[in-house]
Amino acid sequence: MFVTKIQISSFRNIAAAEIRFNRRFNVLHGANGQGKTSVLEAIYLLGTMKSFRLAKTPDLVTWNTPHALLRGWAERDGVGREIALYLGKEGRKARVDQKPVTRLADFFGNVNAVVFSPEEIAMARSGPDLRRRYLDRAIFSGDLGYLLLHHEYHRLLKQRNALLKRGSREGLDIWTNQLAEAGTRLMVKRMGYLAEIEPLVRRFYREIAGGEEEAGLAFRPHLTAPDQVAREGTDALLALFGAHEAEELRRGTTVVGPHRDDVDFVLNGRVIRTHGSQGQQRSFVLALKMAEIEYLERLNGAPPVLLLDDISSELDPQRNANLMAFLREKRMQVFITTTDVSTLRLEGIATHASFHVSRGTVTPS
Amino acid sequence: MLQSSNSFARLLAELQKLPGVGEKTALRLAFHLLKYPENTAALAESLGEVLSRVKFCSICFGITEEDPCRLCSSDRDETSLCVVEEPQDLLAVERTRAFRGRYHVLQGALSPLNGVTPDRLRIAELMRRLEGGAVREVVIATNFSVEGETTALYLARQIKPLGIRVTRLAHGIPLGSDLEYVDAATVQRALEGRSEL
């Protein structure tokens, strides 16, 4: 999968830009705050309609302009696609090959993108939210049914919370049942995905960090255990909700359940959030991303595009070199932002394009 | 011009309350109404007529002009009762001509977010009908949304203790559709709910 060209207008601090990309490596360099990451963000939006910076539409549109417009030309299995995304007051509207797309499910898959950025590294040391959000996003980039299930679970959660807020038991057990059922399906899918990528993470962690440390992913369903979910199915969640019903009625919200699940990043049996060095945390997230790339490649027959945001500053020279070795080997398109081109180990990479980004203007260099 | 015309502004405001009608559509409709006064008079008359004549059937809560409605006073099968959310859902089932029993309209689906709890639906009336003893099967035809599914489960739980059979419409791939054009999520659900041949 490749993004061959992108047109950006009134997006963040980029008034207008048209960029033709190289099919292998694309380096965007320039000082901070000039718009490098916005280019990556534009590519990501064309794949998912969402920002990896978790921004709302008004933040994405250039100040004092009515709307932003992104257009991308992507190629997959030799087939070109034109994807357009309008971001404005009426929300986000997408077209694929000039035809309007109404369902998110129809939009996904035209551009699969994996991001690796300093913000992503934060998930190795933060609370559960970032890790859970990452997990969900990783799963539905390969499984559209998961997106539907995720929506369903959160709709049920909202409904049940509304009922709890009224302090009403009338019909509560039915909403609880429904929530437990959707929640269990959600947990089962999460476990399935983690089981699939764990061996890949283990392998890539060794490749990046060297040494014999064994990386693992331990699913931590909120207040229950994976084997309990596997054994008891919906009953595990039902018991959990049952035990907290009085508290939930008092607090007027659902306090337990998969919306609070977590996954531990583990090295030799120790959780790196609390026991890992910064270097271990960075390597782990990088290994996780490589595993995601490998997983998507197996699933789709082609690797996704990789967006590396300001990453050389995060990795030491050895890890940087290991990352570059991985990228050289994978036939995938890569977009890298950096403030300092000299930190990139581009030797041995014959085909690349580089662009200078300054005050929202992108010029080939 | 518009600001000075009070009745016109009111018309716009009233039109905008309709589902799917925004500012621009309301303007278009209002000018259209002014342009064709005869049609507008007929529309006004019909609106008044609907208001005064159409009401909810006291048995099934579908819309009707005479109470009880034609369906409820007919000699249709009394042992089978189809439960739907809205009167238009009743029409959708009825159009199939595949169902020969009677109906019950809930007038909504459970949704705590919108303040819809069981007492706001025609559930008590449904239970009274079932206590009559004639009904042997209840076909639940609520929507396949989170709210519709939950309502169906709620009803099943209320009805089953009465010893009445409770069934639910099947869902999955739309009839006559090519599998390749059905979205992946629907196919996935249909696969999960597959049945033995």
TrEMBL record, chain A:
Main function: The RecF protein is involved in DNA metabolism; it is required for DNA replication and normal SOS inducibility. RecF binds preferentially to single-stranded, linear DNA. It also seems to bind ATP.
UniProt-listed Pfam families: SMC_N (PF02463)
Keywords, alphabetical: ATP-binding, Cytoplasm, DNA damage, DNA repair, DNA replication, DNA-binding, Nucleotide-binding, SOS response
Molecular function terms, GO-annotated: ATP binding; single-stranded DNA binding
Gene Ontology annotations for the cellular component aspect, listed alphabetically: cytoplasm
Binding sites annotated in the UniProt record for ATP: G30, A31, N32, G33, Q34, G35, K36, T37
GO biological process: DNA replication; DNA synthesis involved in DNA repair; double-strand break repair; SOS response
PROSITE patterns, per the entry: RECF_2
Protein name: DNA replication and repair protein RecF
Signal peptide annotation: none
RecF/RecN/SMC N-terminal domain residues: 3-344
Organism domain of life: Bacteria
Taxonomic path: Bacteria, Pseudomonadati, Thermodesulfobacteriota, Desulfuromonadia, Geobacterales
Family affiliation: Belongs to the RecF family.
Entry-linked PANTHER family: DNA REPLICATION AND REPAIR PROTEIN RECF
Subcellular location: Cytoplasm
